[in-house]
Structures are given as C-alpha cells and as structure tokens.
Design brief:
The protein is α/β, with parallel strands linked by helices and 354 residues long. 54% of the residues lie in helices and 10% in strands. It folds into 2 domains: 209 residues, Spore Coat Polysaccharide Biosynthesis Protein SpsA, Chain A (Alpha-Beta Complex); 125 residues. It binds guanosine-5'-diphosphate-alpha-D-mannose and manganese (II) ion. It is a multi-pass membrane protein. GO terms for molecular function: dolichyl-phosphate beta-D-mannosyltransferase activity.
Length: 354
C-alpha cells in the first residue's frame, strides 16, 4: 500500500461517491486505500458500504458509536488503522480537492519532510471556499495567533489550521496526541518538532451538506491552544480568572437592576460555579470525562471542594495575619494562590480521576 487516505465524516452521505471517484482517478497506478472514520447519525455508513462495494480502490469504514474526541479523535483512529505508513488526512466534503493528494505524495517522496501540509496561504493557494468574510478573518487571525504561540515549531507552516495534510506515521508518537475538536494538525505539529513541507491548494466550496464548524468548536480551539502551549493548569487558571470577572460583572449588573447586594452575590456565585464547572467539563478536562464516572458525581465533588476551600481560607488568613504578622492583603493573596494550586490538583487527580 502506497498511501492511506483518512477521511473523517459526520453526515456526509451525498459527498462519499464523488470523493472516492475523484480520489481513485487522481491516483491511478498507486496502491491507495480510503478509510472513512465515521461518527454520523444518519445513513452515511450505508452510503459508504454501497460505494465500497463498487469502488475500484479499497474503501474501509470505521463507524464509531462512541465518538471520542470528535473530528480529531476520528483522525487519530484512522491513522492507527491505516495500512500504509503514509497517511493523508482529508475532509469528506470535497473542500479539499482529492487531486491535490498527488502533489502531497510527490512532495513527500522528496524524502525531507515528516509532514506535507496542503496550504491555503502560500503562493498558488486560496481560501475562497471559506463561506464568508467573517470566517476568513477568523481563520487568518487564529492562524497568526497560533503561529505566534509556536514560533519555532510552526515556522515552516503557513497553514497550521488546515485539515488537509500528509504525515508519515513513523514520525508521530500517536499515543501522545490528545485530539480535542477540529485542529488535529496543530496537535501534531505542536507536540514535537516536525520537518514540514508545503504544497499550495485552493480551498473549495463544500460539495454538499453543511459545515459542522461552530462557536463551541471555536472555544475548543482556544482551550486546545492554551493547553498545548501552557499546559492544562493555565487553561484551568484562565477559566477560573474569567469566572471571577464574570462573577463581579453579574453581581454589579444585578445591583444596577435593584437587587440587594448579598442576594446579588449569591446569584452571581451560583451562576459562576455552574458555568465554571461546565467549562471544566467541556473544555479543560474534556478528554478525561469519559473515564471518570458520572458528571453529577464530579459536580458534587467540585462543588464541595469549592465550599470547603472558601471556609478554610478565612482562618488561614487569620493565622497568617495575627500569628505570622503578615499584611492582610498579602495573606489573602497567598491563600488565593495556594487555593488555586490545591484546587487544580484536586480537580485533576480526584474529580477527573479515572
Ligand atoms: N468523524 C467525524 N466526527 N468527522 C467530523 C466531525 C466529527 O465529530 N465533525 C466534523 N467532521 C468531518 C466533516 O464531516 C468533514 O468531513 C470534516 O470533518 C470537516 O468538517 P466541516 O464541517 O466541513 O468543517 P469546516 O469546513 O468548517 O472545517 C474545515 O476547515 C478548517 C479550516 O478552515 C476542516 O478542514 C478543518 O479541519 C479545517 O481546519
Ligand atoms: Mn468543510
């Protein structure tokens, strides 16, 4: 097998036949297989089976009933299952023209790269297929931010957010990849210094169906970026910090509406506690939920911890001020820092324990 083409799909039925046809036409004379890693909730698996039966290249289907890690998780699963060490990752909606696979392969055969990226942002490439100006701006801005955060590792990559690339599986440590959300190439490039080469391509409009990009994918991306760069602890801190600001804003807003300040504080705290917990669930510890039991048990643990922490901090401040003669602001700040570290450790090791 010269090449395995891995295609993550979520409800892409109408695109499957066209994708297989064009892939096979573009790679005549090569031993190539297509692996669909499918999380669909519609009849896409049936469509794939039907296309596989009459295709002139091997077409495999991995349907996941338990789609861990979304798009990124699907790609990792495909890479694991690939027959060939050379893996191309490509979207299932034909925004990535299968004809470009031949360019990726030719560039890979020069032998000096671990990853060959199909880029929208080098000469000869375009991003016209991004549906509107907002998405184009978001894509550009997040590319810049990402490159700024990994100046060395992404130095040779103009399009770390693309989902179209070729990777030599040998050059990866597949077990270390923590796929969250959409940006699997970023995950691959940020983990380890890779030798990157690029070929241009024109990002096409979708062939059929709808995009699965969303605001929540955007939030996942920001969390992924923070975690890759600064570790889980910073993502945790960021969520906590934003929560504290939100708490104050809500409290102030309620008071403006005439709510008494203690009542406002209680309401603001309840909202923040719940929002904070949800952010931990779906962003910071999203990859650990699967194995750590029931969400409601985690909530109880997290909630209890926050309550105990609030109560314990007060006497500790008192001890630091009256016994250790520390200024009260410093004492309060110290307890906050200590509480933050303990809270992180508690969540990582107890609340989200496997
Ligand atoms: N298996 C699986 N599971 N596949 C998924 C999932 C999922 O949860 N979510 C989306 N996909 C598949 C889609 O079916 C499609 O084949 C591909 O992943 C990309 O999804 P789109 O919905 O077409 O997203 P997009 O066009 O907004 O995003 C593309 O452009 C980005 C760059 O702007 C993707 O190529 C991204 O990878 C790329 O970063
Ligand atoms: Mn798409």
């Amino acid at each position: 097998m010269d090449l395995s083409v891995i295609v993550p799909t979520f409800n892409e039925g109408p695109n499957v036949a066209e994708l297989v046809r064009r892939t096979s036409d573009a790679l005549t004379g090569r031993a190539v297989e297509v692996i669909f890693v499918d999380d669909s909730t519609d009849d896409t698996p049936d469509v794939i089976r039907a296309v596989a039966a009459s295709a002139d290249i091997p077409v495999r289907l991995i349907h996941r009933d338990n789609p861990v890690g979304g798009l990124g998780g699907a790609v990792v699963e495909g890479i694991r299952a690939a027959e060939s060490n050379r893996c191309v990752v490509m979207d299932g909606d034909l925004q990535h023209p299968p004809e470009v696979i031949a360019d990726l392969l030719a560039r890979a055969e020069e032998g000096d790269a671990d990853v060959v990226v199909a880029s929208r942002y080098i000469a000869g490439g375009t991003s016209d297929g991004l549906a509107n100006a907002v998405r184009t701006a978001v894509s550009r801005a997040s590319t810049l931010l990402t490159k700024a955060m990994f100046p060395k590792k992404l130095h040779n990559c103009s399009d770390p957010m693309t989902g179209f690339f070729l990777v030599h599986r040998d050059s990866l440590e597949v077990e270390t990849l923590r796929p969250r959300g959409f940006k699997i190439l970023l995950e691959i490039l940020a983990r380890k210094q890779m030798r990157v080469a690029e070929v241009p391509f024109s990002f096409a409009p979708r062939f059929a169906g709808e995009s699965k990009a969303s605001f929540s994918q955007g939030m996942r991306f920001l969390t992924q970026l923070t975690m890759l760069r600064f570790g889980r602890m910073s993502a945790f801190a960021l969520v906590g910090g934003l929560g504290a600001v939100a708490n104050l804003l809500i409290m102030g807003g309620l008071q403006l509406l005439g709510v008494q300040y203690l009542v406002a504080a209680v309401i603001a705290s309840i909202i923040t506690i719940v929002a904070n917990f949800l952010a931990l669930e779906y962003l910071v510890f999203a990859d650990m939920r699967e194995e750590s039991g029931l969400m409601r048990h985690r909530f109880i643990k997290s909630f209890t911890f926050n309550g105990i922490e609030a109560i314990v901090r007060i006497p500790v401040i008192w001890v630091l001020v009256s016994q250790a003669h520390m200024p009260s602001v410093i004492a309060a700040a110290l307890t906050l820092i200590a509480a933050f570290v303990v809270r992180f450790v508690f969540h990582a090791l107890v609340v989200y324990a496997p």
